[in-house]
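Table S2 (continued). Query chain:
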Amino acid sequence: MNQFQIETAQNVTIDQNSSNLGERMLAYIIDSFVIVVYTVLAVLFLVYLNVDFDALWALYLVVTLPSFLYYLLFETLTDGKTIGKGLMNLRVVKLDGSKPNFGNYFVRWILRIIDVSLTSGAAAVVTILIRGNGQRIGDIAAGTTVISERQRVQLKDTILKEIPNDYQPQFPQVTVFSDSEIQTVKELYEKARKNGDHNVIVSLDKRLKEVMDVTTTIKPIEFVDVVIKDYNYYTQKL
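Corresponding output:
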């Protein structure tokens, strides 16, 4: 999963996760399935109507027109999503952070002829792999990309903390805490370290020692870190 930054007109930087090739291909397969099913049903409906041959082609064009305009219609009307993109939590956005307009969606749609139709998708695959930010040829021309809106849980968002394989815990008393309590401690500790707020770290140090009923000469900033590591050791390593 590649992450890139976009800067809005208000000079606000936003981190976005570009969709990966696997997600794009699955979304394409789903959309293709929807189009095929709709087209088959439309043809069967025409046969059921038993219309005159002279009017058949006209009716065929009218009924199957939504299939032809599928990507353009859905992305325009559903804020950059098709059925496949929606199921895969993908969305078309502009690189500058603004919402794509009809012109952007139209350019993406018309260039599918090169990206998908004429090259059987090879041009799209190669371009996405080379660009690294979810752009195929149509996206490059339209100034858009496809992002993933799936929530990515990172290590820093959990109670997990990387510890060496030969790590030796110091305070078995940490097991008196629950996962949610250690998560709160970890969040407060990391935020305090980032902001240089020593008072918060001292308060955490004091409270942890009271609950654990321990006495130590380890500095507060080191003690809180050890408590988090020890908790991970006893709950994850054993």
